[in-house]
C-alpha cells in the first residue's frame, strides 16, 4: 500500500499545490480543519455547528471551537433517548423470512423507452438530516417536483452516505431516499445510496448500545460515540426495522461511467477486498455477523479521511482506482473546507479565503478525486452535482 495512504491526515504534510477547486469554490467563514481521522468535525453545539434552522455562519472572528471528541473518548455524553433500549446482538439485522418490497428495496429496471442510453448521472454529498436543504437542492437540479416526488425520468441518482446525525430529520432523509428509489425505478431511472460511516454508527448504537468495544483510546462504545458525534434522539426514537434492513444492505462502493463512488476519502476499503463486489460483500458480512468489535473496526476504518490530500494523495487515488476501477474517485465525508485547510501544517486560510462559500464540488489530487461534502452542517452547502463535472 502507498505510504501514508488511508491513514488520514498527517500534521505538517502541507497544502497540496494544484488542488484548488474550480472558481468560486472555497470555504465558508469560520471553518477550521479537522483534527485527524480519529475525530469527526465539530460536534453539535460548537461555534461551528449549523443550528437546525439557522441561516448565519460565524465570521472570521468567531471563538475557537471546543476540542472535537474522539470516537474513543471516555468523556460523558448526553443521555440516551427516553425509552431507548438497544437490540440484542444476536438478533439478525435481516429477518430470515424478510421479503423486499418495492418501498424497501426497489428493483432497478430498464424500460423499453430507456434502451441502451442511460439518463444523466447525479451524485449527492453528505446530508446529515437536513431534509429541507436536500429537497431544495434536488428541486434546483430538476430531480424532484415541488411536492418532493421524482421528476427526472431516466436520470440516475447516487447518494454518497451520511443521511443522519447532526441535522434535524435524519429519518426523514432516509424515508425520502427510499421513496425516490421506488419512484425513479418506476420511471426508468434509479436512485441508489452508499453506506456512510454515520450509517455504521447508527446501526452500531442501535444494535450494541453501551457494549464495550476494543479501542486504541480506551473504553468506547457505539452508543457513546453516536451521542458525541451528532446522534439525534429523535432519529433513534423513529428508527424502524425497515430502516435498519435498508441501511444494513447498502453497498460501500460502486463504479459507474468511469467514476468510483465511495463515501470516505480513504484507502481503507482495500482491506475488505480486491474488487468492488468482493469488498461490498465483505462489509455486508461484517454487519450480519453481529460482532461488536468487528463492526467497530469497520466503522473506525471508514471514518479515516484525507487519503487523497497532500503529497501522496494522487498516488493513493491511483491505488484505489487501480484496484476497483474508474478514472476518478468521487467521495463525501470530508467537508471541502477541511480539504483546503490544515491543522498543524504550514498552509492557513487567509481572510479572503475565509470569506468564500462552497458553491460546488472540489476537484483535486491531480484531477483524480472529487469532493462532494459541502459542509451543510456548518452553514456550507448541500451539494448535488451532475457527473462528469463540466466547466
Explain how this protein is built.
The chain is 27% helix and 9% strand. With 391 residues, the protein is α/β, with parallel strands linked by helices. It has a five-stranded mixed beta sheet. A hairpin with a 4-residue loop joins strand 7 (362-364) and strand 8. The chain is globular, with a radius of gyration of 20 Å. Residues 1-39, 41-78, 82-89, 98-114 and 342-355 have low confidence and may be disordered.
Topology, element by element:
Blueprint: E1 121-124, H1 131-140, E2 156-159, H2 170-186, E3 190-193, H3 197-208, H4 222-228, H5 233-238, H6 241-248, E4 253-256, E5 259-262, H7 276-289, H8 292-301, H9 313-324, E6 328-331, H10 336-340, H11 351-354, E7 362-364, E8 369-371, E9 384-387
Parallel strand pairs: 1-2, 2-3, 5-6, 6-8
Antiparallel strand pairs: 1-9, 4-5, 7-8
Helix pairs in contact: 3-4, 3-8
> So what's the CATH class of the domain at 121-387?
Alpha Beta
Helix and strand string, N-terminal first? EHEHEHHHHEEHHHEHHEEE
Please report the number of helical segments. 11
Supply the helix-strand structural class: alpha/beta
Total beta strand runs = 9
Let me know the average pLDDT: 76
Which percent range fits the helix content? 25-40%
CATH topology of the domain at 121-387: Purple Acid Phosphatase, chain A, domain 2
| CATH architectural group of the domain at 121-387 | 4-Layer Sandwich
CATH homologous superfamily (4th level) name of the domain at 121-387: Metallo-dependent phosphatases
Shape: globular
Amino acid at each position: 500500500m502507498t505510504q501514508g495512504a488511508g491513514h488520514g491526515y498527517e500534521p505538517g504534510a502541507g497544502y497540496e499545490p494544484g488542488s484548488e477547486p474550480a472558481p468560486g469554490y472555497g470555504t465558508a467563514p469560520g471553518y477550521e480543519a479537522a483534527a485527524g481521522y480519529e475525530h469527526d468535525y465539530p460536534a453539535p453545539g460548537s461555534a461551528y455547528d449549523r443550528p437546525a434552522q439557522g441561516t448565519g455562519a460565524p465570521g472570521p472572528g468567531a471563538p475557537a471551537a471546543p476540542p472535537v471528541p474522539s470516537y474513543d473518548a471516555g468523556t460523558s455524553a448526553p443521555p440516551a433517548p427516553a425509552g431507548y433500549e438497544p437490540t440484542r446482538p444476536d438478533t439478525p439485522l435481516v429477518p430470515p423470512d424478510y421479503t423486499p418490497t418495492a418501498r424497501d428495496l426497489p428493483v432497478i429496471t430498464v424500460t423499453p423507452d430507456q434502451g441502451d442510453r442511460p439518463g444523466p448521472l447525479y451524485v449527492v454529498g453528505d446530508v446529515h438530516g437536513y431534509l429541507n436543504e436536500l429537497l431544495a437542492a434536488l428541486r434546483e437540479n430538476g430531480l424532484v417536483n415541488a411536492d418532493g416526488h421524482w421528476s427526472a425520468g431516466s436520470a440516475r441518482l447516487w447518494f454518497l452516505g451520511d443521511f443522519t446525525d447532526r441535522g434535524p430529520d435524519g429519518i426523514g432523509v432516509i424515508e425520502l431516499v427510499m421513496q425516490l428509489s421506488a419512484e425513479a425505478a418506476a420511471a426508468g431511472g434509479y436512485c441508489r445510496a452508499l453506506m456512510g460511516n454515520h450509517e455504521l454508527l447508527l446501526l452500531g448504537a442501535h444494535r450494541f448500545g453501551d457494549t464495550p468495544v476494543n479501542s486504541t483510546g480506551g473504553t468506547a462504545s457505539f452508543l457513546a460515540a453516536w451521542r458525541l458525534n451528532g446522534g439525534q434522539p429523535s432519529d433513534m426514537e423513529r428508527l424502524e426495522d425497515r430502516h435498519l434492513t435498508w441501511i444494513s444492505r447498502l453497498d460501500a462502493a460502486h463504479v459507474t461511467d468511469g467514476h468510483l463512488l465511495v463515501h470516505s476519502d480513504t484507502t481503507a476499503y482495500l482491506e475488505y477486498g480486491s474488487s468492488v463486489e468482493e469488498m461490498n460483500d465483505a462489509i455486508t458480512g461484517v454487519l450480519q455477523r453481529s460482532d461488536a468489535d468487528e463492526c467497530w473496526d469497520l466503522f473506525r476504518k471508514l471514518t479515516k479521511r484525507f487519503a487523497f490530500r497532500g503529497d501522496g494523495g494522487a498516488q493513493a487515488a491511483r491505488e484505489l482506482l487501480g484496484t476497483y476501477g474508474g478514472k476518478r474517485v468521487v467521495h463525501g465525508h470530508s467537508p471541502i473546507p477541511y480539504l483546503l485547510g490544515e491543522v498543524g501544517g504550514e498552509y492557513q486560510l487567509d481572510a479572503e479565503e475565509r470569506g468564500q462559500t462552497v458553491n460546488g464540488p472540489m476537484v483535486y489530487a491531480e484531477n483524480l478525486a472529487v469532493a462532494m461534502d459541502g459542509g451543510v452542517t456548518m452553514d456550507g452547502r448541500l451539494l448535488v452535482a451532475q457527473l462528469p463535472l463540466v466547466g
